[in-house]
Amino acid sequence: MSAIKILAFAGSTRTGSFNKKLIKIAAEGARGAGAEVTLIDLRDFPMPLYDGDLETESGLPENVKKLKQLMIAHQGFLISSPEYNSSIPGVLKNTIDWASREETDDEPPLVCFRGKAIGLMSASPGGLGGIRSLVTVRSILGNIGGYLLPEQISIPKAHEAFDENGALKDESKQKAVLDLGRKFAVFTQKLAV
Question: What pLDDT, on a 0 to 100 scale, did the predictor assign at position 128?
């Protein structure tokens, strides 16, 4: 059986994003369990705010088409989402909204999300570690056909949590994120059978 393919990304585009650091650790854990992980940066797929008129006039933007092809080619998504004002960041919501749109009349609805394994985590400078954003992310992705790993991780006080190499200073948290990545790889493999 060939290795399962996991697409990993943060719901943040900031260069020093805590969630970009966190997703790298989880991706390492998934690779350790034999998954083929593609780590991307949403900054490399800039897209306009979703606008139905723009979609009607011009179809899907090129970066949306590129991202959708990547999503379709992977069996699971590992996502680390920051929390903006107690909810999902706009860049992640906009990405989901565009990717949920059909490119052609014969494309199955929600082809990027239906039946995909999804693992979630968050990091935030606040005391709750971004957990409030994951409630919304989980709800959205579950409602459009994703299968979500029950376990999730949030890292509070993220501005103090990482060392200069991007690892978590707390060894138990580092291990927990690696373990989440491993569990997610196994979860994705089971769904793909």
Answer: 92
